[in-house]
Queue: 2 jobs
Job 1
Amino acid sequence: MKIRGKAWKFGDHINTDDIIAARYLNTTDISELSLHCMETISPGFSKKIAKGDIIVAGENFGCGSSREHAPIAIKGCGISLVIAKSFARIFFRNAINIGLPIVETNFVGRIFQDDIVEVDLDKGTIVNITRNQTGDFIKYPEFLQMIIKSGGLMQWAKEKYIK
Amino acid sequence: MTITEKILAAHCGFDEVFPGQFIEANVDLILANDITGPLAIEEFEKADAKKVFDPSKIVLVPDHFTPCKDIKSAEMVKVLRNFSKKHRTRFYDVGRVGIEHALLPEEGLILAGSLIIGADSHSCTYGAVGAFSTGVGSTDVAFAFITGKIWLKVPPSIKFIYTGRCSRFTGGKDIILYTIGKIGVDGARYKAMEFEGEAIENLSMDDRFTICNMAIEAGAKNGIIAPDTITEEFLLSVSRGKGIFYKSDRDAKYENIIEIDVSSIGPQVAAPHLPSNSRDVREFSDVRIDQVVIGSCTNGRISDLRKAAMIAKGKSVHSDVRVIIIPATQKIYQQALKEGLIHIFMDAGCVISPPTCGPCLGGHMGVLAKGEVAIATTNRNFIGRMGHPESFVYLSNPEVAMASAIKGRISHPEEVLK
């Protein structure tokens, strides 16, 4: 699967309060959560981005709370992929579980705001089209590929446990 | 194997597990709250699941926005209430509810050697009794509701050995803030933090809970302390059993071993906007404050209230400061009443809140305005954590928080109590 979009660049330790502040967690409504995505550190983010755009961040993306509302808000507002140098562990598993594609790579250092980036999730390759540079990343282990291929944890559960 | 590896192996049917290995483990207890629970229930229902795997192993604790702060949060709690009625799971409504990570151990639901998952990042708290406990997401919880299982990657362990004795006004909170300051907010990312040493052995259960509670602030998967006589005494006081006491083998493999002499550590304060910005309290003595919060899953237990009351006794809160005290559970609240702590706080000019996570996450019961500064015994000081994106949160232990309340600026307890 290939994903192509414009990069929105963020720094290290972007936490779940940055992604979606707790004051908005009194709902599970995806469109409402999406509206406030990244609001604390980038006001108006959900209106600025176009469908398919990509978040590019540094170390420890998604640290803090276990709120699944964070990847839901990111996915819901139209972001197609998050690329980071590293992810906090609960955010990582939440993203895998809900089917938000994420990629871990140091290639982040060669991506700048507004660059057009293309990622091939199957091949593990990444291209900065704007700057004509290529990199790669380590694909997920087989166990996670299985969940991703099912379309998320609950789909996998349906196939395996709920007959 | 390490204690973490032993517990994981025992829960997935292997004799041995190795760091990096993916396992599907059986869970002993599943926790969700009023923020994460409704999402899990939606997923459960979307999957057309008809029943939960074991209702006695599911605990729903509406503690974040309760007593409900608005209509939307009331609707979310209603989802939990209805689900718990339908599936006969455990549920704690207002009047019985407490902050989840203080409540569950107090209710005797956490045993040594057990495997607990919670849709709350501070679920790592329970490692203090020698359990494997970790924060997960709502979908994980929905999956576990159905299957009783969780997918996990076995974490490598880092051993932290604490030597020496804590000085006066220094305890679990200072140890963990100092440690996070040393290794950073991702210093233990994906890893198990195993705490041991003379200083840990001398700590009360409450202080041990505080340490394990904040393992997540270093990015850890779990924090854990091998159970001892203090653990045993605690477990037998709240439950009929104590579970299984594991400890790490002598030849267990660690990714790193870090030694810290606690006798040289003074009370720590973490400056905005990361828990790793921790330094000695004396470096902050010019920081004026508007609000103090003493409570939370980190420091809302009875010994925390005792420590704060010792500082507050016979004193008055500074006229520019408002102080919110939040006993973490009903039992703690009653105990504080019995011991006269609540009187001390009220006489000093503090307000007492019912058990709630409330202000810690900027939810309710003490939200900050633009430009305001708070010192809190909570666990996170991220941008906007307690309210306005341009407000500031400093983290500390209960004695420092109360001393600061009296002085109107961040203060060492010695400034108040000589």
Job 2
Amino acid sequence: MFYNLIKNIVIIVFSITVIGCDASRWNSPYDVDKAQEPILFNSFSSKPKHLDPVVSYNANEWAILSQIVEPPLQYHYFKRPYTLEPLTLEVMPSVTYLNAEGQPVSGTDSSEVAYSEYVFRLKPDIFFQPHPAFVKDETGALHFQNIPPAQLTEIETLADFKTLATRRLTAEDYVYAIKRMALIQNHSPILGTLQHYIVGLATFSEQMSDVSPSVKQLRDASIAGVIVDSETQWRIRIKGVYPQFLYWLSMNFFAPIPWEAEVFYDQAGLATKNISLDTYPVGTGAYQLVENNPNKQMRLVVNPHYNHGVYPGEGLPKDANPALLADAGKPLPFIKEVIYSLEKESVPLWNKFLQGYYDASGVSSDSFDQAVSVSSSGSLALTEEMREKGIQFLNTVEPSIFYFGFNMEDPVVGGYSEQQKKFRQAISIALNFEDYVSIFMNGRGIVAQGPIPPGIFGYETDEKAALNPWVYEWQTGRAQRKSIEVAKNLLAEAGYPNGRKPNGAPLVLYYDTAATGPDSKAQLNWYRKQFQKLGIELVIRATDYNRFQDKMRGAKAQLFSWGWNADYPDPENFLFLLNGNQSIVKTHGAGVNYANYDNAEFNRLFQQIKTMQNSPQRFALVQKMVKIVQEDAPWVWGVHPKSLALYHRWYHNVWANPLANNTLKYKRIDAELRDYSQRQWNRPTFWPMVLLFAVSVILFWPLRSAYRKRQQAVIVPKSSRN
Amino acid sequence: MLTYIIRRLVFAVPILIGVNLITFALFFMVNTPDDMARSQLGAKQTSAEMIAAWKQQKGYDKPLFYNEKQPGLAKFYDTLYVQESLKLFWFDFGQADDGRQISADIQQRMAPSLAIAIPTFVIGLVTNIAFALLIVLFRGSVLDTATMVVAVAIMSISGLFYIIAGQVLFSKLWHWVPISGYAEGWDSIKFMILPVMIGVFAGLGAGIRWYRSLFLEEIHKDYVRTARAKGLSEIKVLFGHVLQNGLLPILTGVVVVIPTLFMGSLIMESFFGIPGLGSYTIDAINAQDFGIVKAMVFLGSVLYIVGLILTDISYTYFDPRVRLTA
């Protein structure tokens, strides 16, 4: 019997070993064959809410949507500063400046300029992705515009429509998108901004939103300042001079929408199955969305009609890897399918990346030490473990700012007198954001000297010239934060020696925040300690996000932290955060200037730079504005965060462009290398299985014999025991 | 019995109205319709007009409980509470704030939740009972004491630890199963092994202790002694008599849980990438999506009530002495 047992164990172990040699990737979350194809495996952590181009405005939505739809312009993949280029246009839109009568005038500086008119000319032969909305019957009518209920019962996803067709992109598709944007019920987040610029948009919006127009009514109606000239040309007239308008044209809000798609999706039976323009957008981009299950997986596949993109061959900065130009001139895209899987937790995401099942990953705080080492100078490098796997990383400063704000309307921390400025400058010195970056951001950020982040026109690249002289001094070739003694002196000059009021009472300040979780405790304590250095007591008023926003909109916070991501790479998009006209108090909560900063000279310069084209003169004026706010110190300038992305050696053409979202088409996968690496890294280990089996067997025997002994036990009467 | 069931179902209506009222009051105490609009529209570039339009479109422009502008009964009827609540009783959950159909989402997410919950429940139940009977078989021995110590240890450690340790051990180090993910049909098996195994193991401590105490109560009863006296083996006594008589208290705890299996497990589904219902409610609370919150709370209440009714019915099946009367 014992012999039989041993024999069985040997057979089992042998079988497992044989199977194991063949199945080198038991732990693969995908069909193993897929690793051998040029498919990108990526993840998302929160579900995209909207994919309707006129509504969507979140980064996680644009990461998908921008691969599908194409606005007229895009950012050049490599060039810095960020540069726009035509995407579906033949050339950049031409602009003509007009007077109030609509007659052309020369130059933007002329006070006569009442309008700017942009003319757009499409590239020929751009086609939409295959879609059932375009299918026509023999009479030329749309085939799927009135799907009978019986047929609808067989439809669960868009992929269930087997008959597909396409159509050429026309100027009307772009104009139709602007009309959709104008409908208030579509909730386009930029309508409020753009109706001040596009001629006739506000009137159109008011009139059409009231009637909730059908697709036909919307097509037939027209916006005064948006005119279709021909199938391939349209023009947009905007009020005054607004050079930043071109940046809006690179956003998905201006992507074309075929009216047939809206007719198709308007069918009630489809909406109940979550098939809508908001879930399955229709575009001319390199990819089409074929699966939208935001609870599990989103899947893009190549748009077979895409034919108008080639890999860029110029613009790469000199210090960048020249291999990035190896694919120059080749038709796009290189990757044939992209699978985004929902990963809510960072631990499985990170482990799957290390196993090679994700091609790229960010770095969460949990895995930071394993992935990245920080040198004494603060520079980041990959750890030995990552280098051994051939993992590479990209480290880019985001066009964003995270700042600490003073409410300038507050009698204690606000105001514009010399004393009040000194008070804020003292706090600016005491709040040591170099420490903050090191402690809370693992070095992933650079301390800001002013409101404009690197990469944006107006950012001073000369460190010495960029220095905020009220907080730093230039010593031994680098910026040094002024000592806390300097800050204490400034505080004394401001009337609060040692953090005491003139009557000797301790100075108490209030910091409002929505950070209430246990993770935030250390950060809030850090803020308290920074203020303690000056003898000031900081009281934290933590509340939920809704109440915090209410306070901010009501200008009720004394001190607060806030942030801003660039909508477009122009200094205007950051300096307007300090423009007096955007002040929360003046706009009754509708503005974005939460510090309520209002400096007449700054406001005047802002109006000037707002309409200027980039030039040395504009740069000089921006610097002047930065110097004004550095002195007034309505914000402690805080941090420009750095993003850190890791990617495997088989993932090519990876380049950081935080403003361009449609960059998947440039990426390339070496599927063979990935397949090989996955096999190497994921061979199953068998000895624990054998051990587990052996332990079970060993445990079974004493139990068995104990049970038998018990069953065979004989109850002996008391009288017989002796 | 039919009368009894109908009566219980009728009684369920005021309970559901009450639960819905509490959900409504709690939700709107924390979130105003303006907050909800801002959350949906985004903080950037959101004007007062857009917020008003959003509220009107979604019906959140109505007063919460009393509409002064309306005449007669419409004062109560044309309110957010009544409009949002009535359709629930027809299981018409409407749209989430992002425009997705809640019923379609629930249907889609229920299957993955069940795919993990049912095996965990069934295997867990069988394992717990089997282990408990084994311990009862060796009661008073070293094995009994050692198992109780291990059971308390298993109970004392957080379920999150088992998940992370399981993922590291079985997937990262030994490469046996995927760390996380989900597939349809038979392909889902390799994704289910680890979460089910961990789910069963994490519940083992409490399960063994609970069932052991139930069976120990039975083991000293007269019918057990009689069975032994008849010469039955200890295994036959345990499985044939003790288990059968211990079923009633087991049913109390088990049947009521069955309907709630539909609701999924938040942590398990998050860590294993299971696209189930576990995180649906929490995500909705974070996104201030009242449509989903009210639908899920309502569904949860209905399932709980159904669970209680099923428990009562199961009593009559397993214990002939119990009769359900109106």
